[in-house]
UniProtKB/TrEMBL annotation:
It holds the Pfam family Sigma70_r4_2. Keywords: DNA-binding, Sigma factor, Transcription, Transcription regulation. Belongs to the sigma-70 factor family. ECF subfamily. It comes from Geodermatophilus nigrescens. InterPro entries: RNA_pol_sigma-70-like, RNA_pol_sigma-70_dom, RNA_pol_sigma70_r2, RNA_pol_sigma70_r4_t2, RNA_pol_sigma_r2, RNA_pol_sigma_r3/r4-like, WH-like_DNA-bd_sf. This is RNA polymerase, sigma subunit, ECF family. GO terms for molecular function: DNA binding; sigma factor activity.
Amino acid sequence: MHGPPPATDDPPATAEERLEAAYRACGTAVLGYALRRAATREDAYDVVAETFATAWRRRADLPADPEEVRPWLFGVARLCLANAARGSRRAGRLGERLAGALADADVPDPAALHEDGVLRRSVRAALDRLSPEDRELVTLVAWEGLSPTQAAAALGIAPGTARVRLHRARARLRVLLDPTDPEEAGDAR
């Protein structure tokens, strides 16, 4: 026999409170659902995160009946899994097309200045001794063909700062490549 719900003095739960309760009650179940269906654990974690992000965005649609919440979340997770699978297939197809397009392309290594690889190794070793920030700045300009102003924009720094850092990084790089040159050693300091 069904009757009206018992009267309580508690105000109805907000959508946010219902979602928080749903997460506490169903989070592990949604993770299990995703783990049994996703290709990897990381993919499953991504699906759970996306499921609850979607549930947050659609919290007004969260069923009021606690018995309906878990199936609703599984439905959201199922759609997130399907989206992830479509994205993975799309990325795979794009990768295949790019691999096919670049298969015959000769992509030069900007650090490979000599066929024997000796200078290439020394350039790489010298670059590795620069700070990561200086290395990125130098390679953006030297290898990617950006101007110092464009490299500054890519790195989120002021153009003047980029020019000064680039000048100093180039000087350090020259010393690292030829530490016996006293004129260059003086410039690097």
